[in-house]
Specification:
Chain A is α/β, with parallel strands linked by helices and about 170 residues long. Chain A is built from 6 helices and 4 strands; from the N terminus they run ααβαβαβαβα. Classes of the chains: A alpha/beta (about 170), B alpha+beta (about 575).
Chain lengths: ~170, ~575
């Protein structure tokens, strides 16, 4: 039962907002890039394996090329030695892109408050979502995925996020 | 003669022998090792004799570490010392050679010409302590980045002083030097028909299972030279440990080899208890054996699951990894965590098994056996697997020993060294199991050895399940273990005892010692320096896969690039343990 403009166009045309339709596509086909460095990567393996099955959320196409990915999952501790690589990987990902910091180390340095550990990856790249835990359970990864999907639903495709981000390496 | 007496007797004999051979040095026995103090000028001759004299035959250089005595309560003549830990695995002889370093800038003589493992070991000492090794072929940083200034494990380096790295090391000189060493000189490289291509695998690459950088120089797909860079997951374990009480370090050990976290917990607790002179209860010993072997199986499951994915066999991942995932039910119920268990305490375990654990564990073991069986059906007689792994990335026993390999990777090369047999602890000598040994030292052997080891571990678990006695799991020693909660809540002595142990930590007598454990990847050792307080003055880990990675180029040079990928997965490099 169409109303307004749609009513006069017959039943072959559906009108919607561009934001809504593009974001609908984006949120259910996230292609994650796993920047797995430490223990959290093992829990990501669990999230991807059959019991938790990340493909139920449309994000099972794990890419190891940043150019094919739009969700950067940083699983594990980032050291200062690793930092420039993380930044470069982030820059190589095409827009739009989202970043999830998985676990205590990626979020804040975790138990490693010392000379070699970056105290949270948000000092290097912009982060959209943080997952707590050391390491987080696979369910927490799935939860983060759903949260990112919700965030994408509310975004405008015309606005570039994080344009003004400045990290310690910029 | 009991085993304990036998080993004390062995030690006394070894001490006599070493004393006779090196009359001008001070020799003492510390736990299972003989410690030889030498003058820096005698270091090289001592090490050389210990390695080459058939009476000592120390074929394995396990570890090299530095010590900074700046804040040590007993003043030392020289601030820096270096310790070499050697082992003759056939005769269960463990020797530590200590020397003072009068001037770190002037340095001491290198041991790289005696053991190849000294290369990375000494590089780490240089990186962390700034002690130079004269004659070292490639003395540069290894764990910290190249733009780092200062040496973090020196006592005057503040722990929180991070240094930003802006750019990754190019490694151009290193790969060229390696090419040159392999007989490829500038003229060949400039020759238009040779066309050497430089290819980086990692630090962020699916094949690296973490963060390692493998730089290769290729002729077509054949690797002519290979240089590896590690340290991307250097998280400052050792410096952090110096600022924690002994029990607070247990969670840090979880994160060394996070695929088998409990083995690290146990190895660490055993090392501290050895020096405290605490013998844990029978039940705790059995628990530790059981859990070690269970985690060994889990570790091998993850390694094989990932390795077979790298080879293109994704199905195996489900068969093997699902069993690991299923095991988390039991582990969660037992420890309250999935991956990072922190289950040991100095003097025992965090808690006892729950009611009905035997049934759960037996069910788990059957599941694992089925998973292994299913996976083996796919790979054991699979032509593709055989073609890709047999005779590929071979390393001889001699080279493997020289690079300090231990564990399954060494045994795949035909060296039957396994601490559970050669230097047993926790009643391993009373358990009936075999140590699988390879013949060729190729990828196939390294794969299959893990399959066979899992079967043996399951055998051990079943025996231990039968014989585990009832009883307490913690020693009754108020200086070591926390009092029961009803005493903490109901009387002042218990409360004071609890507070003192938590705040000050377990007081460990001053001294230095090394203790090792057969972990899933090989010999996991801990070298402690204690100043008598509740926190270690220094704690060095001897990680098995650090030295395995040190010999990686020896395995892959001359092979194809795709072989390097599966070789990396079959040696089970775990970043947390590699870089600490």
């Amino acid at each position: 039962m169409a109303l307004g403009l749609e009513a006069s166009l017959g039943n072959t045309v559906l009108t919607t907002k561009l934001d809504a339709v593009i974001n609908w596509g984006r949120q259910y086909s996230l292609w994650p890039f796993i920047f797995g460095t430490a223990c959290c990567a093992i829990e990501f393996m669990s999230a991807a394996a059959s019991q938790h099955d990340i493909s139920r959320f449309g994000a099972e196409v794990v890419r190891f090329s940043p150019r094919q990915a739009d969700l950067l999952l940083v699983c594990g501790t980032i050291s200062y030695k690793q930092a420039p690589i993380l930044k470069r990987i982030y820059e190589q990902m095409p827009l739009p892109k989202w970043v999830v910091a998985m676990g205590a180390c990626a979020s804040s340095g975790g138990i490693y408050d010392n000379y070699c550990t970056v105290q949270g990856i948000d000092t290097i790249i912009p982060v959209d979502l943080y997952i707590s835990g050391c390491p987080p359970r696979p369910e927490a990864v799935l939860d983060a995925l759903i949260k990112i999907q919700e965030q994408i639903r509310g975004e405008s495709i015309l606005i570039d996020r994080h344009n003004d981000f400045k990290g310690i390496l910029d | 003669m009991t085993l304990k007496e036998f080993s004390t007797d062995m030690n006394a004999k070894a001490l006599e022998k070493i004393k006779a051979a090196f009359p001008d040095t001070t020799c003492t026995t510390v736990l299972d090792s003989v410690v030889v103090d030498v003058q820096p000028e005698n270091l090289e001759s001592t090490l050389s004799r210990l390695k080459n004299d058939p009476a000592f035959n120390c074929g394995l250089l396990l570890d090299v570490t530095g010590i900074d005595y700046l804040d040590y309560p007993t003043p030392q003549k020289f601030r820096f010392h270096v310790v070499y830990t050697l082992r003759n695995w056939q005769d269960n002889l463990l020797v530590q050679v200590r020397t003072a370093v009068p001037d770190p800038q002037a340095g001491i003589a290198t041991a790289t010409h005696l053991w190849a493992s000294a290369n990375w070991g000494e590089r780490e000492v240089y990186d962390q302590y700034g002690i130079r090794f004269n004659g070292h072929p490639d003395l540069r940083r290894i764990l910290n980045h190249w733009q780092f200034e200062g040496h973090p494990l020196r006592k005057d380096y503040p722990i929180e002083k991070g240094q930003i790295c802006y750019e990754t090391d190019r490694l151009e000189n290193e790969i060229r030097a390696r090419l040159f060493e392999n007989g490829i000189d500038e003229t060949t490289m400039k020759d238009i028909n040779t066309e050497i291509m430089f290819l980086n695998i990692g630090p962020s690459h699916p094949a690296t299972h973490g963060a390692i950088r493998i730089l290769t120089a290729l002729d077509g797909e054949t690797i002519l030279a290979n240089v590896n860079e590690i340290g991307y997951l250097h998280r400052g374990f050792e410096k952090t440990a110096e600022n924690r009480t002994y029990n607070q370090i247990v969670p840090l050990t979880d994160r060394l080899n996070y695929c088998s976290s409990m083995i690290n917990n146990i190895a660490y607790a055993k090392a501290v208890e050895a020096w405290l002179g605490v013998t844990i209860t029978e039940r705790a010993q059995f628990m530790r054996v059981l859990l070690t072997e269970f985690y060994r199986v889990l570790d091998h499951l993850v390694c094989l699951a990932a390795a077979l994915v790298d080879m293109g066999g994704l199905t195996n991942y489900w068969y093997l990894y699902n069993e690991k995932e299923a095991a988390y039910d039991l582990i969660s119920r037992l420890t309250g965590a999935r991956l990072t268990s922190s289950f040991t305490r100095i003097g025992g375990m965090y808690r006892d098994f729950y009611e009905g654990w035997e049934k759960d564990l037996e069910l788990q073991l059957r599941g694992i056996e089925k998973g292994i069986g299913d996976a083996l059906k796919l790979v054991e007689t699979n032509r593709i697997v055989h073609d890709r792994t047999q005779g590929v990335c071979v390393i001889s026993a001699e080279t493997a020993l020289s690079y300090g390999f231990t564990g399954p990777v060494l045994r795949a090369s035909g060296v039957p060294y396994d601490m559970r047999k050669d230097a047993p602890y926790y009643n391993y000598e009373a358990l009936d199991f075999e140590v699988p040994v390879g013949t060729n030292g190729d990828i196939y052997d390294r794969f299959m050895i893990r399959f066979y080891e899992m079967a043996q571990s399951i055998r051990i678990i079943r025996q231990a399940m039968q014989h585990i006695p009832q009883g307490p799991i913690n020693v009754k020693d108020s200086q070591v273990c926390l009092p029961p909660k009803d005493q903490v809540y109901n009387n002042i002595e218990g409360l004071a005892n609890h507070f003192k142990l938590i705040f000050e930590g377990v007081k460990v007598p001053a001294g230095e010692w090394y203790d090792a454990y057969e972990a899933a990847n090989g010999e996991l050792g801990f070298h402690f320096v204690s100043d008598g307080s509740g926190q270690p003055y220094k704690l060095k880990v001897r990680p098995p896969c650090f030295y395995t990675m040190g010999g990686f180029h020896k395995m892959v040079e001359g092979n194809m690039i795709a072989d390097a990928v599966i070789n990396l997965s079959c040696i089970n490099i775990i970043g947390g343990e590699l870089d600490r």
